[in-house]
Amino acid sequence: MSVVTLVSGGLDSLLVACLAKEEGLTQYPLFIDYGQRAREQEYAACLQGMRRLGLPVPATAGLSGFGQLIRSGLTDVSQRVYEDAYTPGRNLLFLLTAAAYAAQVGADAVSIGLLHEDTSLFPDQTGAFLKSAESTLAMAVARPVRVLAPLAAFHKRDVVRLTEEKGLTGSYSCHLGEAEPCGACIACREFVFEGEG
């Protein structure tokens, strides 16, 4: 089986790529530049992570115009990185791009690093969304394509534990894009566990 793995440089996608490698899947890593503020930091972490896993340099989809048109705290410095984080259409854009790439390279599936549904903040992070997307993508690219979410049973605490066990380091999970994580965005707040502050 072969899979287009959506990789962002973050901890979740790094683990997804690692698990796929352990399963012996042929991978086509894909990084999407959707105009995000953190693009440079994410891409640098992505390159480092793929290199450490012995995976190919990710293909890059240059879709920065999306973020210029669809403004949110993730794409626009004038907006609040936490309160305005929802970016309409972002996950569907990711999946559509990955499915089209899968059709080009002959991959069977696309893989995205969404966590357990009870951690979902937005409607495009749910099982219902993924199921609907799978049927839509098959029509959009004129062939069946499986949508995998290998971390769907995981909470962030589980991801952190497993990546530590596997020695995965060097990820970048902050929407602000500064050298040091801001601690205030959604991605940073995911690492604050109940009872730890």
Question: How is this structure best described in words?
Answer:
- This protein is of the alpha/beta class and 197 residues long.
- Helix content is 40%, strand content 12%.
- The chain contains seven helices and five strands.
- The protein has a five-stranded parallel beta sheet, with helices on both faces.
- Helix 5 links the parallel strand 4 and strand 5.
- The longest helix has 16 residues, at 90-105.
- The termini are far apart.
- 40% of the residues are buried.
Shape: globular
Largest sheet: 5 strands, parallel
Q: Spell out the helices and strands N to C.
A: EHEHEHHEHEHH
Return the average pLDDT rounded to an integer: 95
Measured as a percent range, the helix fraction is 25-40%
Set down the secondary structure blueprint:
Layout: E1 2-6, H1 11-22, E2 26-33, H2 39-53, E3 59-62, H3 64-69, H4 90-105, E4 109-111, H5 127-141, E5 146-148, H6 156-165, H7 186-189
Parallel strand pairs: 1-2, 1-4, 2-3, 4-5
Helix pairs in contact: 1-2, 1-6, 4-5
Write a compact overview of the structure shown.
This protein has 197 residues and is α/β, with parallel strands linked by helices. It is built from seven helices and five strands, in the order E-H-E-H-E-H-H-E-H-E-H-H.
List its salient traits.
197 residues; alpha/beta; 7 helices; 5 strands; globular
